[in-house]
Amino acid sequence: MGNCFSDHAAARSAVGATVFSQNNTSNVAVDCFLLSRGYRGLYSQIEISFSASNLRDRDVCSKSDPMLVVYAKRRDGSLEELDRTEVVQNSLNPKWIHKLNINYQFEVVQTLVFFVYDVDTQYHSLGVKMLKLDEQQYLGEATCVLSEIVTQSDRSLTLNLVYREESTSSTHPHHCGKLTVHAEECFSSKTTTEMILRCSNLGHKDLFSRIDPFLVISKTVESKSSIPVCKTEVIKNDLNPTWKPVFLNMQQAGSKDSPLIIECFNFNSNGRHELIGKVQKSLVELEKLFLSGEGDNLFSLPAAGHDYHNKVLKSQLFVDKFTESVQQTFLDYLAGGYEMNFMVAVDFTASNGNPRLPDSLHFIDPSGRPNSYQQAIIEVGEVLQFYDSDKRFPAWGFGARPIDGPVSHCFNLNGSSHYCEVEGTRGILMAYTSALHNVSLAGPTLFGPVINNAALIASQSLANGGRKYFVLLIITDGVVTDLQETKDALVKASDLPLSILIVGVGGADFKEMEVLDADKGERLESATGRVASRDIVQFVPFRDVQGGEISVVQALLAEVPHQFLTHVRSRDVQPNS
């Protein structure tokens, strides 16, 4: 979402950044707080245009008059109509003028379904929204995922239109032309405002309590409600904080004249953050504050049952920097040939329980219902698979004893002694199921070996000039026992094209694991005193991610593009033209 970064040089992002810092990283409690208010991950506005060729000719005296209808496929398989093009008369090779505007979200599989109809002449006087589709002649359909379009070098994808007979259940539909879908990222997603914000004289109703302030920037929508689009880092115990630069694109703001609500909160680890004060300003007004050097007073809302007027506070908001520029976006790097490679490491320690018993975290349900390990693999893999051309994913296990061997803290999930890759997400699931029959659960829980293996692959790719970014998913049921070794491995890996998602399954107390996510703002430090160059870890207990259209596992994926951009910008890597 909001382009909020705390590392001025390296962490510039074009779209969708949360907080990234060499001193402060996004806090899980803050993220959950914002999610509850409608905050989501990276999105970029995409404009999609359509053309077709060699359509079926259903008219007797003339050519077909085609119209395209676009649907989004929901997780339950149902279709939601998004838009319709105009009708192009007498053409089997139409190029529709009307374009679809859609928000691209990295962490969500956005499946699009396209239906082409021949509109009968008697309905040409009606607006396309008024047309009843069952009265038009069906010409064919196609489907794809939005990620498949934006990862093409020219952002164009040509699909075969197929004709499915409603009266038959044939699995061999007839081909009836082609549909070409082309995506362009809207310029508003690239035009970015960079601001450094500061507050003075922050007050607190309890004089003896500390203030750990952070800002949330929201835009107002037609319903008069507000949606968070940007946030800063949390600064500890400071009444006069200056936050690191935030980046806000025009798409998020709406326009330079659109009102923005800037709220200052006092951080609370339980997620119930206290509102200190707020101010409403457009980008135009924020720029005027910067040019004048003056501050603007925050105000607080009246308490229930009291005077309805807002209370003006002594606290003030200042804008210490205000610049506008055009930034390279995550999608620019994808179009330039960058790929994302999925890796997975599965915990096979004995604390998971006997896989043959239903109370085991590794139990394979005969009904087909996935266990927590399988569900995490599916939710992450189904997103990342579209960003890797060969879809060959390294997969490891740790904490088990292979047949007639010692305990291994990094073994190939496929059972091979020579290679660790499997084919696609399905290959990971098959290798995982097979491994359950071929290893004995043991322990302890060590992350260091699998992180070092992932880092080695990322390092070799970087040294060979590869344009790949790696995402390692570690799924575990217990607290890591080699904490310092894990920190050492993470600090070393922080310079590499690598992000690590750790998902905790089961009922263990994972509080100690949160230190790996640097959720309190402290950078990871190795045993030798070396400090991580950036935050590459996201951790979440799986019990906190159940339910909802978008799971928190996918919300963790939303951080990956920001970490990717932090990495490439720190090395001054540019997208290929």
From TrEMBL:
Membrane topology: Lipid-anchor
GO molecular function terms noted in the UniProt entry: calcium-dependent phospholipid binding; metal ion binding
Chief site of localization: membrane
Protein location: Cell membrane
A GO CC annotation given for this chain: plasma membrane
GO-annotated biological processes: cellular response to calcium ion; defense response
Residue span, C2 domain: 24-159, 175-299
Domain VWFA, residue spans: 341-560
CDD domains: C2A_Copine, C2B_Copine, vWA_copine_like
Alphabetized UniProt keyword annotations: Calcium, Cell membrane, Lipoprotein, Membrane, Metal-binding, Plant defense, Repeat
Pfam families xrefs: C2, Copine
Annotated family: Belongs to the copine family.
Protein name: Protein BONZAI 1-like
Organism per entry: Cucurbita moschata
